[in-house]
Amino acid sequence: MAKKARWAFILFLLWLPLGCAHVISKDIRSQTNSSVTFKQVSQNLNAYRGSMVVWGGEIIDAMNQKDGSTLIEVFQRPLDSRDAPELTEPSEGRFLIRFDTYVDPYVYSKGRKITVGGEILGEEVRPLGKMDYHYPLVLSKQDYLWDESYYYPSYYYYPWWGYPYWWGWPPFGFRFYFYSHPHWHH
Q1: Calpha distance 41→60 (Å, rounded)
Q2: Distance between CA atoms of 118 and 139, rounded to whole angstroms?
């Protein structure tokens, strides 16, 4: 039993750094000022023009432009320790991401979570309902689309008693758990 526990601990130590890895490169992150908030930037865009930021949120719309670029409208969310948008935290507004190339709206579809590292170009005024909204405009240097499994892992749907050992020691427990739960068969 001690040998199994030792192997489990070694695997945990090997896995631990992967769980904290950022999705935006160290190069881009080193150019940002993490103490500056989205709200501060959006209230005084001229002061932050040319600055690098790492922002994220939920995609509202992807719009391909005539010049071959793409604008993506994002509902801003604060980021967690891996730079993933925190869905339980309140938003401070919306922003636009500019890609200098064509980006497929099917891939960057409404509701997908995104993190972007890029340069603040300024603002773009667009209609939002019956008002004109001042969107901070970020030129994408690097982006990351989050998979839904990050937010809703397979164990999320099952109560704590779904742990494989609940139904017996490993040979029986694992077989019963994995074969009786169809979400494991991808």
Answers
A1: 20
A2: 5
114 forms bridges with which residues in the sheet?
Answer: 57, 145
- In sequence order, what are the beta bridge partners of 72? 62, 97
Distance separating alpha carbons of residues 19 and 58, to the nearest angstrom: 22
Confidence (pLDDT) at 150: 78
The three-class DSSP label of residue 80 is coil
Q: How far apart are CA 107 and CA 166, in angstroms?
A: 40
How are beta strands 70-77 and 52-64 bridged, if at all? antiparallel
**Domains of the chain with CATH codes:** 22-151 (2.40.50.140), 154-184 (no CATH)
Q: Which of 33-37, 75-79, 101-105 has the lowest mean pLDDT?
A: 33-37
d(CA 77, CA 37): 11
Token digits of residue 144 = 């990351």
Residues in the chain: 186
Q: What is the pLDDT of residue 33?
A: 85
Pick from 4-8, 70-74, 95-99, 170-174: least confident: 170-174
Largest CA distance in the chain: 67
